[in-house]
TrEMBL record:
InterPro entries linked to this entry: F-box-assoc_dom_typ3, F-box-assoc_interact_dom, F-box-like_dom_sf, F-box_dom
One Pfam family of this chain: F-box
NCBIfam families reported in the protein's UniProt record: F_box_assoc_1
Designated name of the protein: Uncharacterized protein
Native source organism of the sequence: Microthlaspi erraticum
F-box associated beta-propeller type domain sequence ranges: 44-355
Domain named F-box: residues: 2-32
């Protein structure tokens, strides 16, 4: 099985169909876990292309010290996801992705490598008998507990009333897959301008507001307990308003810690914040001067790779930039394999440190 754990995920999907014996071996939970462990040591770039109201999945090896204007070959994963679920809720988590249709109010979890997807049951809040006046769905996120190896979906609700929030959680590995209510001892409102949410080492981080202050809500996926981190007073947040001045703060994984990118390329500098001590709400600020690049204002901050390079991507161009913090250099990397979309209306979304997961739904 060790040999199979080293081959690309799309090859495993084909090998499962060779014979019943191969299918049995390659579907065993121990092999799935072995493959995920090996895949975590070779993270990839993940691209979703939204075109014709469908979502197409691509992946490529994550470059390490590439030459300028080099090319990566992106592999297409299976058939595109249907029109209804072309909205991706955050970055993939441990190989799985969460999608939502905003018209029919359904959510699915997909596995791009296997081509499978699972429709989630309706939220308790959406059922008339469970509806509480004034409550609304504030955000839905996918998290992963690396200790018990379980995926959980968190639905955050909010209310204008000053009372503790009641949220909902669904465990993917549970037999009936039902939503459960959980309580939070403090009241907050979702603030999507303070990060889109990210799961790092079993903790979901989400932007929120408590009173007039913007904070980061921390949800421990294993214990299902909530906490929060105050933003640094020097972060670009307008505390006098109910929102931020522009979409400034982006969450990312900084070597296993929560990182925040502040600002845009128009500032001509890269401002990063890293949490040093969540208990004492202590942050560390790093500032870098960005080198001049053509068309760079069309690009946005994506995140940091496990090797410490910053990725800047565009929603329309099939190339991206890698910024090396130590050398203060930027490298353009082209994406090959998505040529069919060049003359079609499309949007491309880039994610770092994607791991292939053979988990079956």
């Amino acid at each position: 099985m060790d040999i199979f754990s080293r081959v690309p995920g799309e090859s495993i999907a084909r090998f499962r169909c060779v014979s019943k014996f191969w299918g049995y071996i390659l579907r065993r939970p121990d092999f799935t876990e072995l493959y995920l462990t090996k895949s975590s040591t070779r993270p990839r770039l993940f691209f979703t292309v939204k075109a014709d109201y469908k979502l197409f999945f691509y992946s490529s090896p994550q470059p390490q010290n590439p030459d300028d204007n080099s090319t990566l070959v992106a592999t297409c994963y299976h058939a595109p996801l249907s029109t209804y679920f072309s909205s991706l809720l955050g970055a993939p988590v441990c190989g799985l992705a969460l999608h939502q249709d905003y018209i029919i109010h359904e959510r699915v979890i997909s596995n791009p490598i296997t081509g499978e997807y699972l429709t989630l049951p309706k939220l308790l809040l959406e059922m008339e008998s469970s509806y509480t006046a004034g409550e609304k769905i504030a955000g839905i996120s996918l998290g992963y507990d690396p200790i018990n190896k379980r995926f959980k979906v968190l639905c955050m609700t909010s209310s204008l009333e000053e009372r503790p929030n009641t949220h909902q959680v669904l465990t993917l590995e549970s037999g009936k897959r039902l939503w459960r209510k959980i309580k939070c001892k403090f009241h907050f409102m979702r603030n999507k301008r303070v990060g889109d949410g990210i799961c790092i080492n079993g903790v979901l981080y989400l932007g929120a507001k408590m009173g007039e202050s913007s904070v980061i809500v921390c949800f421990d996926v294993r214990s299902e307990k909530f906490g929060f981190i105050n933003l640094d007073k020097d972060m670009a947040v307008d505390y006098s308003d109910s929102d931020l001045c522009g979409n400034y703060l982006t969450f990312f994984n900084y070597k296993g810690k929560l990182g925040i990118h502040e600002g845009t390329y128009e500032d001509e500098e890269l401002v990063l914040w890293v949490i040093e001590d969540a208990q004492s709400h202590k942050w560390f600020k790093q500032t870098y001067e960005l080198p001049p690049l053509d068309d760079f204002r069309d690009f946005h901050f994506v995140g940091m790779t496990c090797t410490g390079e910053i990725v800047w991507s565009s929603y329309k161009h099939f190339w991206f930039y890698l910024y090396n913090l130590e050398r203060n250099t930027s490298t353009r990397v082209n994406i090959q394999g998505c040529e069919e979309f060049e003359h079609r209306s499309h949007s491309i979304y880039t994610f770092v440190d994607y791991v292939e997961n053979l988990k079956l739904m």
